[in-house]
Write a structure and sequence with these properties.
Chains A, B: Homodimer. Chains A, B: Catalyzes the NADPH-dependent formation of L-aspartate-semialdehyde (L-ASA) by the reductive dephosphorylation of L-aspartyl-4-phosphate. Two copies of one chain form a homodimer. In chain A, about 30% of the residues lie in helices and about 20% in strands. Chain A has nine helices and 14 strands. Chain A starts with a strand and ends in a 5-residue tail after the last helix. The interface between A and B is large, with 59 and 58 residues.
């Protein structure tokens, strides 16, 4: 990493954008110039990078001149409008929105799982959905060793995945409820939909809008993105995505049916050597992953590893990771690092 | 229900005991005399029944003289010591603890599912575990119509299931965290174990102690009790039991594989006509069960009903119920009603 780069962060004032800037700094990414961008509403604000204030500029096509890498986290609409503009001006876009994830021309990349795919980009690389990333990091070593026939997963997703306003709503409604008051929710489960439900001391079995098959868009992301990342259109995924009153850290109860039979000690073996995975599994001393402990950590934590009681090839896992880091900002910066190291810039 | 009965509630000052007394009153159970009982520590306190204060007496063998029905909810140790004493003195015991659930001589009863089994008692009837009750109520109509091969279930369990002190801990630690403070947990996940984890804005993948197979006792209850209640030792159950920061109302993401193929409209049909079940499933208007809405309701709510994307006999459900009512107090009183109506007293 000798070359020094101009790096844009689009959505720099949002929850994930801020984490992207922090991660660039913490990982000592070779940034010559940081260009924080946001909508006109937030332009003029400033962000801190390496101890200095950097002014946020408006995200618009001309702003991408001279940018080498553009990390986008400003929603699908902005990505659809501006990613091609950035790419046309020579930047490689790493996009955290859902805009291009299922585009066959766009690689969908988790570096520990399919890093090589990133090098086949045509200017845009997609960052998968948070709930998918942590699951495939945990499952990839099992997939490689034993094969995977199917996955049944229930999620316990943190509120920060729905943005900073949703976190404020969690805090406000929880505080009110503790003093015996109630106020109607306005953001969760989906801010753009008409009906809202309070997340305070509650769980919401809806993340994103519903599709015709009864699954939500979030659930279908887990189905389709897992297939694309593992490059296996046969793999069966059954998700139930649920929001819980946790600020940061998604948890997942994952049931897997392998193709080949396995011994539990070999599952431990492959997971303990897997990149990006930390095995935290000691029932005797009550050690298992929990969101409160994984906040701020970049790895994917796996525990409660146990053989199914009935199915001979059934395996159960409990997978937890920081949804803003490995689920978003950290994964995006890892992709940028991979491009630098392997000559994937333009 | 003409005969008027003497009804003891053991553990009368606890969370479930109080709900039992409320339920006896609300359901107009034919109580002539209510005998609230508790440990010597709580004896002398009083509880309210039909607008009057009733003094709590110490739970001890002689106190059961003349008692027709004794509802126990004071933990397995108390049940083991006192249930046989109560039964010996002519009471029918309905026990909410785990003490006798797997005893082949003791019926394990959910009235909507296997009510008839109650009549075969020898003085003691067991009330199943809360997480099992709501699942079997939702699955029984599906089991009867299509058969069930296997169940994979992830739970989102409320803190009140761990008792009043655990609820206090949730409240206190949440309040502290909102003001930026932390204090170590002392109760959850299992008060008698050495390690405690804060439930505030967190989820705990442990309910009850671990067994050698890597599953918790709570999870094994779901396996074994489901088999006993459905009288089907072949049925495969894979549970992951998780505590979430909710006060009351357990939620469950349930995947079922039926034996016979099914049409989704027939699943709706059998569920809509099933006793004790309320179907709440309208994605277009964002209607689905949530713990905040089911508190205080005696039914089991089912939503997010959808066909699996891969397995032709796979069915997904989201099941929510008040863990203190149908999961405990209400189910116990229903059993008492069944005994009165069908001549099951001694």
């Amino acid at each position: 990493m000798t070359e020094e780069l101009t790096v844009a962060v689009v959505g720099a004032t949002g929850a994930v954008g801020r984490k992207m800037i922090e991660t660039l700094e913490a990982r000592r990414f070779p940034v010559k110039t940081l260009v924080p961008m946001a909508s006109s509403r937030s332009a003029g604000k400033s962000v801190t990078f390496r101890g200095e204030n950097v002014t946020v500029v408006e995200a618009q096509p001309e702003a991408f001149k001279g940018v080498d890498i553009a990390l986008f986290s400003a929603g699908a609409k902005t990505s659809r409008a501006l990613s091609p503009e950035a790419a046309r001006r020579g930047a490689v876009v790493i996009d955290n929105s859902s805009a291009f994830r299922m585009d066959p021309e766009v690689p969908l990349v988790v570096p520990e799982v399919n890093g090589r795919a990133a090098l086949g980009h045509h200017g845009i690389i997609a960052n998968p959905n948070c709930s998918t990333i942590q699951m495939v990091v945990a499952l990839k070593p099992i997939y490689d060793r034993f094969g995977i026939e199917r996955i049944i997963v229930s999620t316990y997703q943190a509120v920060s995945g729905a943005g900073a306003r949703a976190v404020e709503e969690l805090m406000t409604l929880t505080r009110l409820q503790l003093s015996g008051e109630k106020r109607p929710a306005e953001i969760l489960p989906v801010s753009s939909l008409p009906v809202h439900h309070s997340i305070a001391f509650n769980v919401l079995p809806q993340i994103d809008v519903f599709e015709d098959n009864g699954f939500t868009k979030e659930e279908m992301k887990m189905v389709n993105e897992t297939r694309k990342i593992l490059d296996d259109p046969e793999i069966l995924v059954t998700p139930t995505c649920v929001r819980v009153p946790v600020v940061t850290g998604h948890s997942e109860a994952v049931y897997v049916e392998t193709k080949e039979p396995f011994e539990l000690e070999d599952v431990y073996g492959v997971l303990e050597h897997a990149p990006g995975v930390v095995v935290l599994d000691d029932p005797a001393s009550q050690k298992y992953p929990m969101p409160a402990d994984t906040e701020g950590r970049p790895e994917v934590f796996v525990g409660r590893i146990r053989k199914d009681l009935g199915h001979p090839r059934g395996l159960n896992l409990w997978v937890v990771s920081d949804n803003l880091l490995k689920g978003a900002a950290y994964n995006a910066v890892q992709i940028a690092e991979l491009l630098v190291e392997q000559g994937g810039l333009r």
